[in-house]
Amino acid sequence: MTSQKQYRMENDTLGNIMVPTTAYYGAQTQRAVENFPISGIVLPREFIKAQGIIKAAASSVNVELGTLKPELGAAIKQAAEEVIEGKWDAHFVVDVYQAGAGTSQNMNANEVIAKRATEIIGASEQIHPNDHVNMSQSTNDTFPSALHIAASENLKQELLPAIGRLHEELQKKADTFMPVLKAGRTHLHDGVPMRLGQEFSGYAETIHMIYQQLEHNLQALYEIGLGGNAIGTSVNLQPGYIPKIIEEVRRRTNLPFRQPSNMFAFMQNMSEPIRCMLTLKELAIHLIKITSDLRLLSSGPRTGLAEITLPAVQPGSTIMPGKVNPAILEMTHMVCSQIIGYETAIATAGMASQLEINVMMPMIAHTFLHSINLLTNAIDTLTTKCISGIHVNEEICKKWMEASLSLVTGLSPTLGYDMASQIGMKADEEYKTIKDILKDQGLFTEENQQAIDPKGMV
């Protein structure tokens, strides 16, 4: 039998409920804990921080507008700032898969801040989670705004810098490898010669274009609908509340948040997380392509292409001594596969927008923020533990290039496509180089020699 000393009695509009004595949350959070024992996953630190930012900003503005007593506002603000710092994270306990739209998550924040603020102010007055902490707010405007704030901070401070470092490292490799000639490949078959640096420059520019697209997405995420309240009509607000709270959020984050161009569109849809997630999906697709290329180019080392060597980070086999696998590239591919699945999950949840709100916001918030964190960690690891340590095997690049049947392409202007094709096919059949066949057929002139010189074809 559970000791009564471990619990206290709380109540809400549905009646009484037992809450752990040490918990800073109250009745509505406890109901959510009991109703949704689903995953054991809660929304991440950055989302809780964003909730604290909103609650602190609202308390300041409500005091300024005269709707909240200064002593209550000061206590709420202090408690909310402790939430921002992470002091009460252990008391944010609502599962990601919770009641629609995030009402339980909002009440979790309201209750924790109310209890802590009551402690701060003392026994003189009870601070109410709805009447005081949630004043001038609704779950429906604060939850998507908290998501935009959290995602904007993570994109600006974490993911974009990680992508920038990856682009910089790929560009360094492109510059370093530019003198190295190699065989190009299309359809995984011989292609005309190219420079290894050109191949890497393609990777670098692809990542740079994604960086630019995410910067564009970030500008859209700076729209926050605080003050929209239940459905966008700004019910129960004092005049001037919206610009003041947005300015307060701007001050606290040092990011250029602004009012939505249309409050109702903001409330009805999860448009910006959906659009940004599409960019993250594209990033994942490109990373899979790049890492797959690097796995092919480093394959071997004796039975593959082996044009480049990856840094060895761990043993690759429990049975084959000395084997080293492209572990970092494989990890990146796994993360990117997860991101592609996450984009589908968010797109599906986006379809749940009905009439004035989207009720799948908690799942969207978890999935979107987790995607940003996963990609940040994977990209930083890819950059530091793989890309920065890649070395070229110039002799192997030269060997494959000289053996490539695609050198015959240089003969088309002088011998014609059909004759050049016959030379290429004969070289393949006899397992000889193009140069050998030209010599066999008495066609190895100075002009034709220059035509198949890889340096002249790049």
Describe this structure in words.
The protein has 458 residues and is mainly α. It has three domains: 12-135, Orthogonal Bundle (Fumarase C, Chain B, domain 1); 147-223 and 268-393, Fumarase/aspartase (Central domain) (Fumarase C, Chain A, domain 2, Up-down Bundle); 404-457, Ribonucleotide Reductase Protein R1, domain 1 (Orthogonal Bundle), CATH 1.10.40. Helix content is 60%, strand content 7%. The chain is built from 18 helices and eight strands. It has helices spanning 27-35, 45-64, 70-85, 103-121, 129-133, 139-177, 196-221, 241-253, 263-268, 271-297, 327-350, 361-385, 394-403, 412-415, 417-430, 434-440, 446-451, 454-457; strands at 7-12, 15-20, 181-186, 189-195, 308-309, 353-354, 357-358, 391-392. The strands form four sheets. It has a two-stranded antiparallel sheet. Strands 3-4 form a two-stranded antiparallel sheet. Strand 3 (181-186) and strand 4 (189-195) form a beta hairpin.
